[in-house]
Design goal:
Length: 234
């Protein structure tokens, strides 16, 4: 069975964006559970079956892969904005086993009232991870360039995510052949699609085809920060 969302799920998320408060959400929580949470958990389980073949280290229990709908509102008041306790998208993150408590490279999917995003990469590496990945890239930049230049991957996930620095990171030369890659603070690929794609029977294929193409990139990025990789690169 292929899981996808009903139009009611998008309708719920659109309404949540307009009425982002507990008074509105609480009596409608059963709708969220039925139309948003339940299909997302089922979709994650189906995607896990594909990951078991192409990236087995990224298989995660659905309830752990799915991100919470609740936002951290502690800083809303300090910013002078009314608290918005709920996220207006439903999302999942498949991090590599062993890196759950940090921020290894992983697969990501979310659907909001406006878009569906499919992504893969490392987005919030810790400082030690960032250094290890940069050292790995400097030694193997040709391999990373080949992965990022893969025609099928570029066609399926055309957006490259880098968040580049304006000057070389400490310990790396501006003349390094890999400097354009070393300037990045994150490395990822993604695609943004219309939200309505989440209501089609092809949703599972849209996600898993892209995850399979991105799997070698994640393997490269995680290599120096997994326990075996850390020992190797010391």
């Amino acid at each position: 069975m292929t899981t996808y969302f009903t139009p009611e799920a998008l309708k719920f998320l659109r309404s949540l964006a307009r009425h982002n408060d507990r008074e509105w959400f609480t009596p409608r929580k059963p709708i969220y559970e039925r139309e948003v949470k339940a299909p997302m958990l089922a979709l994650i389980e189906e995607i896990n079956h594909t990951l078991a073949r192409v990236a087995p280290d990224h298989v995660r229990p659905p309830h752990k892969a799915m991100l919470r709908i609740y936002r951290d509102t502690r800083f809303d008041a300090s910013r002078g904005t009314p608290p918005r306790p709920y996220k207006t998208s439903v999302a999942a993150w498949w991090v590599r086993a062993g890196l759950e408590k940090t921020s290894g490279a992983g697969f990501y999917f979310h659907v909001s009232p406006k878009e569906a995003v499919i992504a893969a990469g490392i987005y919030m590496p810790t400082p030690p991870q960032l250094l290890a990945i940069r050292r790995h890239i400097e030694l193997h930049d040709a391999e990373l360039r080949a992965l990022l230049a893969n025609r099928k991957l570029r066609a399926a996930m055309p957006d490259l995510e880098c968040r580049a620095l304006t000057r070389p990171p400490r310990g790396f030369s501006a003349t390094s052949p890999a400097i354009d890659l070393l300037l990045c603070r994150q490395w990822g690929v993604s695609v943004t699609l219309p939200a309505e794609i989440a209501t089609l029977p092809t949703l599972h294929k849209e996600i898993t085809t892209r995850f399979a193409l991105a799997a070698p990139l994640l393997h490269f990025l995680n290599a120096p920060i997994t326990p075996a990789g850390v020992a190797k690169h010391r």
